[in-house]
User: Fold this.
Amino acid sequence: MIPNNAWYLTGTLVATLFSSASAFYLPGAAPHDYHEGDQVQLYVNALTPMLADYDNAKIKSMINYDYYNPGFRFCVPEGGPKSQGESLGSILFGDRIFNSPFQINMLQDNGTCRTLCRPDVSAEDAKFINERIREDYAINWLIDGLPAAELKKDNRTGDVFFDMGFNLGDDEGEYQEMPALNNHYDVVLEYHSPQPGVYRIVGVLVWPASHGGDQAAEPDCITSSQKPKLVLSEEGASVVRYSYQITWQKSSTPWATRWDNYLHIFDPRIHWFSLINSIVIVVFLCGMVSMILLRTVSRDISRYNAIDLSEEVQEDWGWKLVHGEVFRTPPHSLILSVLIGNGSQLCAMVGVTLVFALLGFLSPSNRGSLATVMMVCWTFFGGVSGYFSSRSYASMGGTDRRKQAFFAAVLLPTIVFGIMFLLNLLLITAGSSGAVPFGTMLLIALLWFGISAPLSAIGSYFGSKHGALRNPVRVNPIPRQIPPAPWYLRPWAAALFAGILPFGAAFVELYFVMSSLFASRAYYAFGFLALTAGVVGLTTATVSILFTYFLLCAEEYRWHWRAFLTGGGNAFWLLAYGLFYWASRLSLGSFQSTCLYLGYLLLLVLFDFLVTGTIGFIATYWALRRLYTAIRVD
Ligand SMILES: *[C@@H]1O[C@H](CO)[C@@H](O)[C@H](O)[C@H]1NC(C)=O
Ligand SMILES: *[C@@H]1O[C@H](CO)[C@@H](O)[C@H](O)[C@H]1NC(C)=O
Assistant:
């Protein structure tokens, strides 16, 4: 039954992987039909640091800025900017959406050159803007839910795709002393007409340009490389003329597939390579484990169980020797059980989120849906945390149920909330719009401490009602002496060795995930991600079982913490990789950006450690129960 289900699931996963290459989203939102002359709203989002075009470009900041940050002096709509409602995940991931003064009407003013406004830019503002241009900030607009994009060509495949966001300015570094500000926007709106008189927006492209010269004159909207660029003086005040031109272009792209141009997977071959790499690792590991389990262990078991009459006293050796110690209560079993509970909560969250992503519910048109689903899943899986924590605690011989229930409910949320709070303070001091508003913080606290924690307590209650798993062998009253273990089985060495394999299975995919988290690159290869996650889980489980087997053969029976540590070993590699990424792909100027990066990295490493550590522990526990049930103990 179980293998059948597993195959069915794998089949579904693979099917989804292939079928979703061109349709990662459900057509959930209804299309907005425009008629000629209808007003089309242009919304502005926060400015984000972008990975520049040239080779070896690095991310230079981690901080988002509000579009209407006073330093930018962008044109403000009449009556002041109005904030637009957003989902929780969207806010957490830094979206800050406002209305704008751009006048756009469906199919009208084709190619008309217009002035938006002429703000005064003081020397101080000019310094602020130039600094942001040097950090490669990008402007993010939204029209009918679509992000404004620049048309780019993928040099490897030759595909043309829409790259979200467009440059605030132009800083070619060596060629130019001062950065040039883009003060003209050539906007191309692609529309599709499903029936006469009805129009839908299916593409938003922007070519930003820097128009220097007399800013008091009327704009001509003609961009050419001969024209002077607009360089802001940092000595005195200057006037900037912002202008724009809207061009309507008929497109054959229907509304339902309008996102396909944006969902460009950079070099799918690399993803395939990564996947094959992971699968090779898994096959290798599974081969090794099955060899050990099937040959060594079954041989051990039959030898242990054989009634040998020729010897009066049969001497135990290998892992059987420690049968009276294996299920001895480990030190600090309370903390271990709390970690296991929280790890299983995160596992459940990751699993459900990936399923949602695979099924296409987390469409990019539904901004922030990924983060929202994750937050909500984590909240409602509080019960999982309580249940697993309390059962593992009881199985390890723990008795202080109240303490366990309390810590399982509040420990992780408190730590995560604490880190988020500190990062938020940093963002506030940096004047960033990425700072989470007070109301949202309150909402998160309410979700975690008002819903997740009580659910966890309920889970603990049911867990303790189901009680401990019965140990297959009795525990000796007097602990055995432990001989010194070989160096490669010492806790840290073993964790680092064991961590290499799951990390190796994931690190190519990890590069893309990091780029999407820290370099504002969109990530849509959820099929690859889900398969990689499955491979990592499997690898972690087998590696932990393998190392625990070696450990027991070396008569070291304190395996509980070791199994968790061995499972979580890849988190140390993740940390190292994060630091390497920092050194090689980021060039963060400010102290705040550095702290933010390290803070996010720390959270990522913590989550990874909990999830994989829990997988390692549960797999090992399961295997040891099987193992010691199979032998006959006198
Ligand atoms: C892609 O190729 C073009 C011309 O061949 C070059 O100008 C551009 O810098 C390249 N882009 C990247 C990202 O390598
Ligand atoms: C707008 O002008 C462009 C060229 O200037 C043209 O290609 C396009 O068809 C025009 N659109 C409409 C709706 O007339």
Q: What stands out?
A: The first helix runs from residue 2 to 19. The chain has three domains: 31-261, 332-469, 495-634. Residues 332-469 form one domain. The first strand starts at residue 42 and ends at 49.
